[in-house]
Amino acid sequence: MKFATKAIHEGVSPDPATGAIMTPIYQTSTYVQEGVGNHKGYEYSRTLNPTRHALEKNLAAIENGNFGACFASGLAAIDCVIKMLNPGDEVISTNDLYGGSYRIFKTIFEKYGLVFHFVDMTDVHHIREKVNANTKMIWVETPTNPMMNIIDIAAVAEIAQSVGALLCVDNTFATPYLQSPLDLGADIVMHSVTKYLGGHSDVIMGALVTKNEKIAQEIYRIQNSSGAVAGPMDSFLVLRGIKTLHLRMERHSENGEKIAHFLAKHPKVEQVYWPGFPDHPNHLVAAKQMRGFGGMISFTLKGNRLEDALRVVERVNLFALAESLGGVESLIGHPATMTHASIPKEEREKSGVVDSLIRLSVGIEAVEDLLEDLENALG
């Protein structure tokens, strides 16, 4: 079955009670049982809710997995994955990482005896240097946030398998439409569903998908025990959003390409980070493992002055100055003071998050209007 068909149909079916084509919002906390233990598969909505269950099956299908689990946020999904580890276990992650992921690793889990290593994963040799008997997980973002670095998922999977470590891939930027980490050897895929999967800036949610039943059972155990589950209304909204994911991602990618080339030629722009450029580091890896290069772009200004970057992000009209990404509307952000403010300045700058770095989430508006907006802001 093709992606567009799966996105619209998998996991959902007409409501048996009414024939409603859309999965109902089962806004209920509990379910009446005919007898003790005699129920219709649902007992309590923290454990399982029909609307959330439909979404979990849909997400599993579009990620080419077998099991999906939805959470109250992307960080709640990450929290679940890290809870699969034990004190003394070591995690290798990229040094160019979403600030919230870095924060939960360092400020929440490190004090429980977990050890985190942050390395430049664009060269997998750096991962091999850190792997040891205590390595139990490798955490990958690709493309990374916000530097758009590309990491070879298949190559990292080989390293993880050689030491029996879990490979987890944050697929938020690429989405299942552009990239399929499970097919490349990943054990778990994580999404901030808030972003492209929801697609309309009206939901906070996270998700995990796996092919492995044993891993899935552990995810479900932690999900039920910790209770950070997605609600039925949010699940309904995401089910609706995913039906147009393929169409939206095509436009995000088309607009992103045009804007990336515009920025690359602008006299006030120092460097543009977008994996579709042939001279982008690991462009060939991106071309191999992705089906398009998406609508996320970062760029720096000549002179690297904080005041110049702040002036640009405050002068746009169509691009909204806001956190988050992946909605139908275009967003602009300043990573050093927004999404990555929780990372110490010295660590930020090592990975390229300098004061003049600006990140764009290119929406699906008419690209001519977006180009004019950027030209005015830069001018």
How many helical stretches?
A: 14
Q: Give helix and strand order, one letter per element, not per position.
A: HHEHEHEHEHEHEEHHHEHEHEEHEH
Shape: globular
Major β-sheet profile:
7 strands, mixed
Distance N to C terminus: 48 Å
The amount of helix comes to 25-40%
Low-confidence segments, given as residue ranges, are none
- Helix/strand-derived category reads alpha/beta
Number of self-contained structural domains = 2
Kindly provide the name of the CATH class of the largest domain.
Answer: Alpha Beta
Mean of pLDDT: 96
Number of strands: 12
Q: Supply the CATH architecture of the largest domain.
A: 3-Layer(aba) Sandwich
β-strand percent reads 15-25%
Rg, alpha carbons: 21 Å
The CATH homologous superfamily of the largest domain is termed Type I PLP-dependent aspartate aminotransferase-like (Major domain)
* CATH-derived topology of the largest domain: Aspartate Aminotransferase, domain 2
The main sheet orders its strands as: 1-7-6-5-4-2-3
